[in-house]
Amino acid sequence: MSFLGLNLANNLSFYSIPVAWALALAPHAYAMTLYNAEKSATAPEWDICMPRKNISNVKDAKMSPASQDKYLRAESAQENGFANIPLYAAAIIAGNLARLSPSTLNTAAGVYLASRVAYNVIYTTNTSKFMGNVRTATFLTGVFTCFTLFVKAGNKLF
Asked: Does the keyword Transmembrane helix belong to this entry (predicted)?
């Protein structure tokens, strides 16, 4: 079976690591877009030289409180995504070193990536305690997927 020229019967798990990186960066791109669309005419421009300074510029940008919150949530989603990439990459590497089946590796990669998409969307748009709990569940789904790969790899190697 082929999808976009990729043979899905083959191990595609290593390809998922750059996809995970792109998913971690996506909320930041959204935050930049939101800032530029919502800021007042007198607000500072997006500072590409000192991007972390932009968080302090949000209040000076005279964005609506809802937009400010969405901006901050998007930046937090990005930070969480980048904090999780080492765990995910290590799990994929462990699974490959243990020679887990392509089906296991591809399924784990798909579940992890789907959980990160859901996490980003929920985190950026969330305004309720219930959805905060759903966001935590999506986060834990990704983490437990990584742990599952570590356990399966350990069982196969030892």
From this structure: yes
Taking alpha carbons only, the member of 154, 110, 119 closest to residue 138 is 119
Based on the number of CB atoms within 10 Å of its own CB, is 1 exposed (0-12), middle (13-18) or buried (19 or more)? exposed
Phi, psi of 16 (to 5 degrees): -75, -20
- Is residue 27 a contact partner of residue 83, using CB atoms and an 8 Å limit? no
- Distance CA(67)–CA(127), nearest Å, equals 12
Per-residue pLDDT tens over the stretch 51-77: 777 777 777 788 888 988 999 999 999
134-156: pLDDT as tens digits: 999 999 999 999 999 999 999 99
**pLDDT tens-digit series, residues 2-28:** 555 666 678 999 999 999 999 999 999
Give long-range contacts, CB 8 A cutoff, 24+ apart: 61-67: 61/35, 63/34, 63/35, 63/38, 63/39, 64/38, 67/34, 67/38
Q: Residue 39 gets which letter from DSSP?
A: S
Alpha carbon distance 145, 54 (integer Å): 34
